[in-house]
């Protein structure tokens, strides 16, 4: 399974569009996960022309703007091709991802999984990052439109899941 990862697009108006490069870099993905700070549902509409979309609520996403969009989830614990993926906006603390005494919690994930996730997809920082923490792959795709809080082309990521094995890579939009 190939999954497009994107975050922090901060599309301010209905007339504003996502970078056209997303059509190329996400071509062939089975699913797109947006890790929040979307601002307007038209951004999800654009992504959905490429593949189905699931999005986390970001700290800057307003109910008045996003409404009851069913693609938006406050927290998500996904089971995809034999892997468990947490989709959140802000990175959970390490102790919440792989806690002591097998007690699992997060301010974004309220479900109680029986084991740590295989992948945590998060955003918020506008900085792309891939990290492995005690067997958990942590992926921040950065921002496609505001990398490092500068309005320019940025980054996204691709997550590959094959029979429970996970890998990710960052792509710079050009």
Features:
single chain, 174 residues, mainly beta, Purple Acid Phosphatase, chain A, domain 2, 6-stranded mixed beta sheet, 5-stranded mixed beta sheet, globular
Decide which structural class fits the backbone.
mainly beta
Largest sheet: spatial strand order: 4-3-2-1-10-11
Determine the CATH topology.
Purple Acid Phosphatase, chain A, domain 2
Number of strands: 11
Sheet with most strands? 6 strands, mixed
Architecture in CATH?
A: 4-Layer Sandwich
The CATH fourth-level homologous superfamily: Metallo-dependent phosphatases
The rounded distance between the terminal residues' Cα atoms is 25 Å
Q: Which consecutive residue ranges, at least 5 long each, have pLDDT under 50? A: 100-108
Total helical segments: 4
Quick one: CATH class?
Alpha Beta
Give the fraction of residues assigned to helices: 10-25%
What percentage of the residues does DSSP assign to strands (E)? 25-35%
User: How big is the Rg?
Assistant: 15 Å
Shape by Cα distribution: globular
The H/E string reads EHEHEHEEEHEEEEE
User: What average pLDDT do the residues reach?
Assistant: 86
How many structural domains in the coordinates? 1
Outline of the structure:
This protein has 174 residues and is mostly beta strands. It has helices at 21-25, 41-48, 63-66, 94-97; strands spanning 2-6, 31-34, 53-56, 72-73, 76-80, 83-87, 119-121, 128-133, 136-141, 155-162, 165-172.
Describe it.
- The longest helix is centred in the N-terminal third of the chain and has 8 residues, at 41-48.
- The chain is globular and about 45 Å long.
- Helix 4 links the parallel strand 6 and strand 7 (119-121).
- It has 174 residues and is mainly beta.
- The chain has helices spanning 21-25, 41-48, 63-66, 94-97; strands spanning 2-6, 31-34, 53-56, 72-73, 76-80, 83-87, 119-121, 128-133, 136-141, 155-162, 165-172.
- The strands form two sheets. It has a six-stranded mixed sheet, covered by helices on one side. The protein has a five-stranded mixed sheet with strand order 5-6-7-9-8, with no helix packed on it.
- It has one domain (2-172): 4-Layer Sandwich (Purple Acid Phosphatase, chain A, domain 2).
């Amino acid at each position: 399974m190939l999954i497009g990862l994107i975050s922090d697009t901060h599309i301010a108006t209905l007339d504003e569009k996502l970078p056209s490069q997303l059509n190329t870099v996400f071509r062939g993905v089975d699913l797109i996960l947006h890790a929040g700070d979307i601002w307007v549902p038209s951004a999800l509409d654009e992504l959905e022309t490429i593949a189905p979309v699931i999005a986390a609520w970001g700290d800057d996403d307003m109910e008045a703007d996003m409404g009851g969009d069913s693609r938006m989830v406050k927290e998500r614990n996904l089971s995809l091709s034999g892997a468990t993926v947490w989709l959140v906006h802000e990175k959970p603390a390490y102790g919440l991802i792989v806690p002591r005494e097998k007690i699992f919690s997060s301010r974004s994930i309220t479900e109680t999984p029986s084991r740590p996730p295989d992948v945590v997809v998060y955003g918020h920082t506008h900085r792309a990052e891939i990290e492995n923490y005690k067997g958990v792959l942590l992926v921040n795709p950065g921002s496609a439109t505001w990398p490092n809080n500068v309005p320019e082309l940025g980054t996204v990521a691709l997550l590959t899941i094959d029979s429970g094995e996970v890998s990710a890579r960052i792509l710079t939009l050009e």
